């Protein structure tokens, strides 16, 4: 039963079953059509012969004329050549004339026949099937069509039955043979068609969460199996990329968490190594506070990313006036810019910047970009501008006159935990830009950046309004 469950076996069985049913119907049609085609000429011959014999039979005074030796009569030559039998019965059912091999024919009433109709009987002597046509003999002399006897003409159906039996045996042997060949052919074709599926199954069993690099690598085809293989390869590539990002994220998060923990352990260890003054204890607590703040920033960023990555997490959007939001963000960060002697200039229209979005996420996005601009700009100005663009879109541009970003770093600045300052002497956890880009993409947009070292850096945030 295990093998019957395979698709190729079921396909072969279904093919053989449908073909067997079709052959049975076809065989019945052929058999009965052939039987009718062979029997019809026999009936026509018997009927025609009977009509010819009726014309030759004489009657006198309501009685049949007996022929003493019918075999010598010329009108019976056709009967002899065709192997026909003839019998003439009088009104009492007594034979008057008989000719041929089948003369022991029962009377029409005993044979179940009716005058003027056909019947098939079995000859008692030879056991051959015999077709008999019986018709009444009328006395034309009286003028009232008086029945004076019965004419019976018979012919053997042995040749016809042998032909039908040969046809039946041919169908009986040939039909199952054709079904077996078709079933084997169906199994072969199914095996060839399903061979790529077997390859997919074997490859899929070799794939695990620890190694998603295996691919099906089936020859490219335009059929359903080829498209399935290409889709699975594409899915494996996406899963492999996702797992690699997850492993990299875990490794980076562990590294980022270990750094402040190691610093805190060092501070605590050195502080407890010997008695300290009150000022030294205060300094140690201040250092611990900075490390704790760094860890809090890191854990907040990780939590935010985890929520964004959750497939079931859906942020509820609400109407947002981006003009007011940007003004609030720039106003809150202007004192920080002024502390460094920087100008924070805003060119934000009062109206026309409305969209459906996550207010908190957008505040975090623009606060991060403006804060980075302030952090990496030593002199000059930071400009924030916004405009509505054609095609249901908004664009917010943040331009600074800071240190700029080297070209080799531009492709990676949105990666998680990536930091341009490899020494990590500046504040930050390397998640701000990654979170900002994911927020922009959640709003149907993206972030692009252009930079010239020691001159300026420009971030453009594109958002969809619908």
Give, in order, the helices and strands.
Answer: HEEHEEEEEHHHEHEEHEEHEE
Using only CA atoms, what is the Rg? Answer: 53 Å
Low confidence ranges: none
- The helix count comes to 8
Strand content: 15-25%
Helix/strand structural class: alpha+beta
Give the SSE map.
Elements: H1 7-56, E1 59-60, E2 63-64, H2 77-82, E3 84-90, E4 95-99, E5 117-122, E6 129-139, E7 146-156, H3 158-206, H4 224-272, H5 278-309, E8 318-321, H6 322-339, E9 343-347, E10 354-357, H7 359-375, E11 381-389, E12 393-400, H8 432-442, E13 446-452, E14 456-464
Parallel strand pairs: 9-11
Antiparallel strand pairs: 1-2, 3-4, 3-7, 5-6, 6-7, 8-10, 11-12, 12-14, 13-14
Helix pairs in contact: 1-3, 4-5, 6-7, 7-8
Keywords:
466 residues; 19% strand; five-stranded antiparallel beta sheet; Beta-Lactamase; rod-shaped; alpha+beta; 3 domains; Helix Hairpins; Heat Shock Protein 90
């Amino acid at each position: 039963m295990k093998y019957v469950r395979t698709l190729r076996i079921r396909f072969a069985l279904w093919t053989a079953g449908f073909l067997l049913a079709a052959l049975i119907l076809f065989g019945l049609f052929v058999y009965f059509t052939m039987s009718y085609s062979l029997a019809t000429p026999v009936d026509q011959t018997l009927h025609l012969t009977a009509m010819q014999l009726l014309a030759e039979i004489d009657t006198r005074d309501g009685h049949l004329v007996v022929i003493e030796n019918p075999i010598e009569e010329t009108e019976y030559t056709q009967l002899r050549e065709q192997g026909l039998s003839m019998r003439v019965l009088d009104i009492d059912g007594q034979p008057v004339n008989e000719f041929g091999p089948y003369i022991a024919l029962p009377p029409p009433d005993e044979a179940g026949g009716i005058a003027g109709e056909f019947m098939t009987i079995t000859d008692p002597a030879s056991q051959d099937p015999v077709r008999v046509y019986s018709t009444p003999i009328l006395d034309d002399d009286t003028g009232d069509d008086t029945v004076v006897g019965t004419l019976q003409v018979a012919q053997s159906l042995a040749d016809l039955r042998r032909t039908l039996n040969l046809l039946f045996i041919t169908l009986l042997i040939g039909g199952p043979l054709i079904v077996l060949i078709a079933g084997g052919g169906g199994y072969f074709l199914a095996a060839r068609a399903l061979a790529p599926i077997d390859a997919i199954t074997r490859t899929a069993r070799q794939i695990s969460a620890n190694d998603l690099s295996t691919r099906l690598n089936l020859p490219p085809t335009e059929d359903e199996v080829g498209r399935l293989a290409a889709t699975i390869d594409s899915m494996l590539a996406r899963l492999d990329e996702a797992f690699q990002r997850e492993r990299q994220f875990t490794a980076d998060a562990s590294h980022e968490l270990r750094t402040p923990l190691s610093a805190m352990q060092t501070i605590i260890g050195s502080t407890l190594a010997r008695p300290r003054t009150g000022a030294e204890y205060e300094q140690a607590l201040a250092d611990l506070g900075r490390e704790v703040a760094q860890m809090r920033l890191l854990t907040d960023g990780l939590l935010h990313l985890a929520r964004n990555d959750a497939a079931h997490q859906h942020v509820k959007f609400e109407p947002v006036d981006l003009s007011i939001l940007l003004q609030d963000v720039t106003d809150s960060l202007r004192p920080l810019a002024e502390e460094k002697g920087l100008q924070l200039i805003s060119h934000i229209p009062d109206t026309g910047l409305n969209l459906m979005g996550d207010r908190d996420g957008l505040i975090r996005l623009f606060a991060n970009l403006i804060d980075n601009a302030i952090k990496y700009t030593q002199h000059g100005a930071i400009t924030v501008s916004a405009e509505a663009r054609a095609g249901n879109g908004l664009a917010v541009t943040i331009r600074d006159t800071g240190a700029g970003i080297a070209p080799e770093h531009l492709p990676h600045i949105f990666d998680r935990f990536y930091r341009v300052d490899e020494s990590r002497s500046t504040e930050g956890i390397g998640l701000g830009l990654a979170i900002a880009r994911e927020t922009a993409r959640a709003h149907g947009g993206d972030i692009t950046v252009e930079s010239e070292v020691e001159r300026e850096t420009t971030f453009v945030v594109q958002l969809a309004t619908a």
